Amino acid sequence: MLTISRTLSLPESELVERFLRADGPGGQHVNRTESAVELRFDVAGSPSLPDEVRARLLARRDRRLTAEGMLVIQARRFRDQGRNRDDARERLVEIIRGVLTPPKKRVATKPTRASKERRLAGKQQRGRIKQTRSHKPDFE
Q: What average pLDDT does this structure show over 116-136?
């Protein structure tokens, strides 16, 4: 059981782990062991996720999310499989925790009078600079 929050946890059966050979440090040992971990979680088909959380997860523009709604996390930071496995699971937990609370609605505000005046002053300054460029001096 992977605990996300007090109210949400994922059963192990929903996580698919695949082990593969990692590049990077490790010498000859890295060529013989499968220390990298690829963790797959079916966001679209998970019965454990509430509908709102699932919708927010699928709405994210994340390159780790496939078109079928599968979240794929690759962990190859460490040299041993156990630490990479824990790292992948921690990253999955962080991704899901990030969408647990709905984003705050933006409150529309009007620009202040000072900000309008600063904007107009900047436009006038820019206009004066451009005006000085347009007149060619007369050489006679």
A: 91
Give the number of other CB atoms < 10 A from CB of residue 122.
10
What DSSP designation does 25 have?
A: S
Give every CB contact of residue 99 below 8 A, 6+ residues apart in sequence.
53, 56, 57, 60
- What fold does the segment set 2-98 form as a domain? Double Stranded RNA Binding Domain (3.30.160)
Q: In the numeric block, which tokens belong to residue 130? A: 């451009």
Q: What's the mean pLDDT in 4-17?
A: 88
Report how far residue 140's alpha carbon sits from residue 138's, in angstroms, rounded to the nearest whole number.
6
Sort strands 9-10 and 2-3 into parallel, antiparallel or unpaired: antiparallel
**pLDDT at position 91, please?**
93
Higher pLDDT, 35 or 40: 40
Task: Identify residue 110 by its one-letter amino acid code.
Answer: K
